[in-house]
């Protein structure tokens, strides 16, 4: 019977968990033995009693469980020490930061651990139930608007009162991916006027369906990448884009930036000069802070006030709604885990159209071509 370990998360401020009582019950029904480190799930408000009722087992010796586990399910990357304790052939599934955690990748390869980062799930129809980036970005887009609304110095909705009319706030959303689309929907529900920019013209209809006004970027190349992601574009493109956006940003009360390119530094969409054109009291919420930021002034995890404009670079917004974020993430993980099982045994099929593209380390090697090239100095 394959053994699954659900550990406590080590990341600073990480409140999510990789399995909920719902998914533990389903794993047990699949014939897996599920052990949980003491305290796992408590920060997301899942009790130990709920896990035990679902068929999970409390870890009696967490060091021994790390060393003997067949599958380890995490939210964030494990420590180097924990990774080094995994047995050869063990499978690690989680948000493993594959584009930046070089030391961890080398340890996993040396230990002959099979790793499947949730960040590498291919964007194909069959893998939608496993798409953790989307499930978590949806939450981030929602929470970013609430953060902006609580820090802005004025109302979001139009108000008509005996004391006069209060005009609705103007919100500019940069990037209409999953986070951006949820931000549009949430800002509209709060009553704001929303304008949206994206380098992919294909999202224009989605923006309109949510009540946003799409800012056309005439004469510019499409930034449509593979799998629905944006691609990296040149500096000339970004310069011309900023010129078009400057007047929209200057009139905004809130700017939300969400643009990310997988494996690359986030593009700079909002310059210092653009922020300086905004009125004092306005707010910028940059969801790309951990990848360098879309705003030139962003500092990840910090607040910056520049010319009276508040620039926020929040990290791990999904973790601020840990119960729902964990529920969605745990289902994503379970769906991927099911791809690794065949008749109750762990089977890694590199021809599988989900497992193959997601596989990072396997049988002592980094097998993901782009990441292996980067580790060898290819970039």
Summarize the structure.
This protein has 379 residues and is of the alpha/beta class. It has helices at 21-29, 48-53, 62-68, 80-85, 102-110, 132-151, 178-189, 204-209, 235-250, 272-276, 322-339, 355-358, 369-375; strands at residues 3-6, 33-36, 57-58, 71-73, 91-94, 114-117, 159-161, 164-166, 170-174, 193-197, 213-214, 254-257, 283-286, 303-306, 309-312, 341-342, 345-346, 361-362, 365-366.
Could you characterize the architecture of this molecule?
Helix 1 (21-29) links the parallel strand 1 and strand 2 (33-36). The chain has helices at 21-29, 48-53, 62-68, 80-85, 102-110, 132-151, 178-189, 204-209, 235-250, 272-276, 322-339, 355-358, 369-375; strands at 3-6, 33-36, 57-58, 71-73, 91-94, 114-117, 159-161, 164-166, 170-174, 193-197, 213-214, 254-257, 283-286, 303-306, 309-312, 341-342, 345-346, 361-362, 365-366. The longest helix has 20 residues, at 132-151. With 379 residues, it is α/β, with parallel strands linked by helices. The strands form 5 sheets. Strands 11-10-9-12-13-15-14 form a 7-stranded mixed beta sheet, with helices on both faces. Helix 6 runs parallel beside helix 7 and helix 6 runs antiparallel to helix 11.
């Amino acid at each position: 019977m394959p053994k699954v370990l659900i550990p406590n998360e080590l990341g600073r401020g990480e409140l999510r968990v990789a399995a909920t009582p719902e998914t533990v019950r389903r794993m047990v029904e699949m014939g897996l033995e599920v052990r949980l480190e003491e305290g796992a799930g408590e920060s997301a408000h899942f009790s130990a009693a709920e896990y035990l009722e679902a068929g999970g087992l409390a870890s009696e010796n967490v060091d021994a469980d790390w060393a003997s586990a067949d599958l380890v399910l995490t939210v964030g990357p494990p420590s180097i020490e924990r990774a080094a304790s995994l047995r050869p052939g063990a499978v690690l599934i989680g948000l493993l930061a594959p584009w930046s955690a070089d030391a961890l990748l080398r340890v996993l390869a040396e230990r002959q651990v099979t790793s499947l980062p949730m960040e590498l799930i291919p964007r194909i129809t069959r893998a939608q139930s496993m798409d953790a980036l989307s499930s978590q970005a949806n939450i981030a887009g929602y929470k970013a608007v609430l953060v902006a609304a609580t820090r802005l110095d004025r109302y979001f909705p139009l108000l008509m009162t005996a004391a006069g009319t209060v005009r609705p706030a103007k919100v500019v959303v940069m990037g209409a991916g999953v986070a951006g689309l949820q931000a549009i929907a949430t800002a509209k529900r709060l009553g704001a006027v929303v304008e949206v920019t994206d380098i992919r013209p294909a999202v224009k209809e989605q923006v309109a369906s949510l009540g946003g006004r799409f800012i056309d970027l005439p004469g510019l190349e499409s930034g449509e990448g593979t799998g629905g992601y944006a691609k990296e574009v040149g500096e000339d493109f970004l310069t011309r884009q900023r010129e078009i956006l400057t007047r929209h940003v200057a009139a905004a009360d809130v700017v939300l930036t969400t643009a990310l390119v997988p494996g690359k530094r986030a593009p700079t969409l909002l310059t210092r000069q653009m922020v300086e054109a905004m009125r004092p009291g306005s707010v910028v919420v940059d969801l790309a802070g951990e990848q360098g930021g879309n705003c030139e002034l962003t500092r990840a995890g910090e607040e910056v006030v520049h010319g009276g404009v508040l620039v926020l670079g929040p990290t791990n917004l999904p973790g601020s709604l840990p119960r729902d974020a964990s529920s969605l993430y745990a289902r994503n993980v379970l769906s991927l885990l099911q791809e690794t099982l065949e008749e109750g045994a762990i089977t890694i099929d590199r021809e599988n159209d989900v497992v193959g593209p997601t596989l990072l380390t396997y049988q002592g090697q980094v097998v993901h071509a782009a990441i292996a090239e980067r580790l060898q100095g290819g970039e």
